[in-house]
Prior knowledge:
Residues 35-428 form the SET domain. Keywords: Metal-binding, Methyltransferase, Transferase, Zinc, Zinc-finger. There is one protein chain. The protein is an alpha+beta fold. The protein has three domains: 6-31 and 193-329, no CATH class; 47-65 and 382-456, Beta-clip-like (Beta Complex); 69-162 and 333-379, no CATH class. 43% of the residues lie in helices and 10% in strands. It is built from 15 helices and twelve strands. The protein has helices at residues 6-13, 18-30, 92-104, 133-141, 172-186, 195-207, 211-237, 247-261, 268-271, 283-305, 316-329, 338-347, 351-368, 434-442, 451-456; strands at residues 37-41, 47-51, 60-64, 68-71, 158-159, 168-169, 333-335, 376-381, 389-390, 396-398, 409-413, 422-425. The strands form four sheets. The protein has a four-stranded mixed β-sheet. A three-stranded antiparallel β-sheet has the order 3-11-10, with no helix packed on it. A three-stranded antiparallel β-sheet has the order 4-8-7, covered by helices on one side. β1 (37-41) and β2 (47-51) form a beta hairpin. α1 (6-13) packs parallel to α8 (247-261), α3 packs antiparallel against α4 and α7 (211-237) packs across α11. The radius of gyration is 24 Å and the shape is globular. The structure holds S-adenosylmethionine. S-adenosylmethionine binds at residues 45-48, 264, 328-329, 386-387, 389-391, 444-446, 448, 450. S-adenosylmethionine (SAM) binds at residues 45-48, 264, 328-329, 386-387, 389-391, 444-446, 448, 450.
Amino acid sequence: xxxxxxxxxxxxxxxxxxxxxxxxxxxxxxxxxxxxxxxxxxxxxxxxxxxxxxxxxxxxxxxxxxxxxxxxxxxxxxxxxxxxxxxxxxxxxxxxxxxxxxxxxxxxxxxxxxxxxxxxxxxxxxxxxxxxxxxxxxxxxxxxxxxxxxxxxxxxxxxxxxxxxxxxxxxxxxxxxxxxxxxxxxxxxxxxxxxxxxxxxxxxxxxxxxxxxxxxxxxxxxxxxxxxxxxxxxxxxxxxxxxxxxxxxxxxxxxxxxxxxxxxxxxxxxxxxxxxxxxxxxxxxxxxxxxxxxxxxxxxxxxxxxxxxxxxxxxxxxxxxxxxxxxxxxxxxxxxxxxxxxxxxxxxxxxxxxxxxxxxxxxxxxxxxxxxxxxxxxxxxxxxxxxxxxxxxxxxxxxxxxxxxxxxxxxxxxxxxxxxxxxxxxxxxxxxxxxxxxxxxxxxxxxxxxxxxxxxxxx
Length: 459
Ligand SMILES: C[S@@+](CC[C@H](N)C(=O)[O-])C[C@H]1O[C@@H](n2cnc3c(N)ncnc32)[C@H](O)[C@@H]1O
């Protein structure tokens, strides 16, 4: 594969030209996706985002819709969200009932160790008493209503159009968009002939690293765009569909790949930082292991969705570079939990109302323990946010407001920003000393030379 398609693989992985960067980001601007911003090379660190108008401190700079993303597998236990826009779905009762039901089966999500829990702090999960089974079932099937949940209404869950039970949506439009963009190739419904091989791929990702699922979505996204482009070209030319990969179909594949081509990339096994528990003398073995893991995952994905017309997409270099792109660019997918808001609301009620509400809700809060507040978490790639460079004295920050109830990346001005100024974020906790900052940024492959670092630099 790598030898047979070496030219095409090199073309897919070549950094985009300035002209194609301009064209692509201008098209996003024309579509209203980045008003007040321009993306261009800053002459030092590759692509960068510049303000084309002034922004006041605290003002919204960008609401960026993800290109591709997925909820962490372990987080699916804690939060039932729309598989396309990541809004919480169902009802407060169903969310709580589902979580307690899974807990009763001994299935737990991942604990958010570092989060502060304003209204609850219990001991270990295993020691919690669960409400009776019938009570959990009544929450799940809608027979039991909790007080004041009408103030926290969630969209009803819409099933996957293909019939799998893995994905649910907040609306038919999200269900259709997911199907057209990624899921029609990755659906594990029994009506899909490839479901058993797809399940093997997913099982491997869940056991090793769920970043493979996001990479599979990036490949499915490109293949489906390619098929759409090919169809419309065939219609325009009034001739039959092209059968195999030739120059024309490769230029369509390059066009389909364009949104992903814009992301800064390096191969995953080359850019992943060495974990603390790996001895530096074993670095070569570690990187080989990571490459082998990606290779196994790719073979499983190929068994499930390989298409000869898109063959270069299935090379290990391309797969590794897509995963590396998530590693180097990702802003975590985070959506705050309405269940947390609900329990905080109950906690803040006036004395008598609170006492009455607590007679019903306390059992559930105790059973959930600290997990009542777990947010939806995952990995995502955002087309414009991913062009923002780092500074240890940034002028912007990623910050979700109360109204941001889905998976968009939200970027706010943390200082006033003037026209023509570069918009920067901090990739790290910038409140630490110079040496520590540089050590953390080494994981991103650069030494920071922002004004603060130049001042703090000992030499
Ligand atoms: C999220 S991307 C930012 C956009 C990137 N400049 C591009 O061309 O796509 C992160 C990468 O940009 C580069 N970068 C970001 N901030 C930088 C800085 N302050 N100094 C040097 N390189 C930086 C590094 O290569 C980093 O891994």
